[in-house]
Amino acid sequence: MVRYKHNINLVDSGYIRDELAAIYILQNQDEVAIIETGTTYSLPNVISALEQLDIEKSQVKYVIPTHIHLDHAGGAGAFLNHFDQSKLIVHPRGARHMINPDRLIQGVKQVYGEQKFNQYYGEILSIEEERVLTADDLQTYDLAGRELLFIDTPGHARHHFCIFDEVSNSIFSGDTFGLAYPQLDKGGIYHLLPTTTPVQFDPQALLDSIERLLAFKPDQMYLTHYGQLSQPAHYADSLKFWINKFVTLTKQIKPENAASDQNLATELHQIIAYKLKINSTETETVLGMDIQLNAQGLGHWWRTQQH
Length: 307
Fold this sequence. Notes:
Elements: E1 2-4, E2 8-12, E3 22-28, E4 31-35, H1 43-52, E5 60-64, H2 70-73, H3 76-82, E6 87-90, H4 95-99, H5 102-112, H6 114-121, E7 132-134, E8 140-143, E9 146-152, E10 161-165, E11 170-174, H7 203-214, E12 220-223, E13 227-230, H8 236-253, H9 258-276, H10 280-306
């Protein structure tokens, strides 16, 4: 667990490898919000962290996935079962998939296959409708007097919001402000990379969402992938550079099918390794899965533009 100022704590979700996906525990007085859930397998890590923080499970008021991709929301049902007095806050477009996750499960199984789905995510539990709250754009929820403001941020997915915390002047950005793994931080700015995973990537919407977040002038972004990013405005140009680079490369390759997506992944791998000044093995170890998913999302986006 990593403890930041303003009662913000990071818990590693344990998803696939260390320092890949974060869960945040936000405490104010006697109330707690858990932002992101990781997977069903992440719950013991969160329980252990709460014990270290001397937080009772009855203090957990909200469970808040930034969007319903399963590395962010796969554990939501298990979390709601354990924190039996809490409510889920989710984007309006994602609520029905938390109540009945069948379509969500099938979609992810199509990407990963049955075996990897079970290995990565385990059982995805449904959530009773009466325990699901939705957050419209610029709606606020109260955490013992600490205002949490929800900002609609499409681009990575249409069911994505970010959370502005007025006390810390920070934003929990999910996947909207990209990923920046600690292993890739060599003192440069280009390790902040966009996530363009299937199936709702929209480059212009993502660029607009990034500008919208920056308009709040946050002191930090709390990235799900991974950790606290201070002075986020310093990284904005590099993030926009990568989005435009990904799109330009996709238009050049014209990925008509899954085989073309693999060609795109190879090109992404090479250009990222070159720009980050890291070797191919390190790129594959840290970013291999992300690059494959990004290529699939870019390919799907390109094909939808053609048809």
